[in-house]
Amino acid sequence: MKKNSVYRKKSRLPPGQHKTKRFPVLQKGSIAKVNRKDYQLKIEGEIKNPTTFSLDGLIKIKDLDILEDIHCVTSWSRFDTHWGGVSFKKIFDIVKPNNSAKFVEFYCADEDFTTTVPIERLLDDNAILATTFDKRPINDKHGGPVRAIIPNLYFYKSAKWVIKITFLEKDRLGYWERQGYSNKADPWREQRYSDNDS
Ligand SMILES: Nc1nc2c(c(=O)[nH]1)N[C@H]1C(S)=C(S)[C@@H](COP(=O)(O)O)O[C@H]1N2
Ligand SMILES: [Mo]
After folding, report:
1. Ligand nearest to the CA of 81
2. How many angstroms separate the alpha carbon of residue 2 from the centre of ligand 1?
3. Is the pTM of this model over 0.85?
4. Measuring from each residue's beta carbon to the nearest atom of ligand 1, which residues come in under 6 Å?
């Protein structure tokens, strides 16, 4: 008798990653403390409508909850993390990027941390400016009150403690990228280090 063929589902784990149930806390230095009361998020650069949001202002326009796997370049992956916030699509509708805008730089409250992401990745269906984790406000450790969640890239592109977003014509390297991490950061292509970028 002929053996049945086997259909195997594509792995949820990108190459070189292992699954963890913990939720490690990682940042370049110390954990930033961002005051929620007078929090301001400035959005500027190559856009028609520069905007400053308060935390309440962001929470009011929350439009998306996501359940996504996150992949850290140090090789841990955590499945089904639940974040809520404002989709970048909605942010784009409000600030109206110029045609010249190609990249977005996140500037964060921890001592000049930045990271930059191409606009197309922010238009993915699951990319958000998050204000909740597991339905609660994001705590200090994990980047509250406001952080980016961009599940399709290694987690170092998901900036914590975001206080300014700048739309750019030309790319700039961020903090981890200047240390030799990939600026492309696609976990499915295992783009971990900048030496594979070109
Ligand atoms: N502002 C800021 N955001 C950051 C970082 C950082 O150093 N500063 N580190 C990145 C890295 S390397 C990772 S793995 C994730 C960790 O997020 P977590 O602490 O919520 O797990 O945050 C990313 N965002
Ligand atoms: Mo990381």
Report:
1. 1
2. 51
3. yes
4. 24-28, 72, 108, 110, 113, 142-143, 155-156, 158-161, 176
Nearest CA to ligand 1 atom 9: 27
Q: Considering Cα of 53, then 57, then 58, then 62, what sign does the dihedral take?
A: negative
CA–CA dist 116, 164 (Å, integer)? 12
Strands 162-168 and 40-45: parallel
Closest ligand 1 atom, residue 26 Cα: 19
* pLDDT per residue as tens digits for the range 70-124: 999 999 999 999 999 999 999 999 999 999 999 999 999 998 899 999 999 999 9
pLDDT tens digit sequence for 111-142: 889 999 999 999 999 999 999 999 999 999 99
Q: What residues contact residue 166 under an 8 Å CB cut-off, 6+ apart?
A: 43, 44, 45, 104, 105, 107
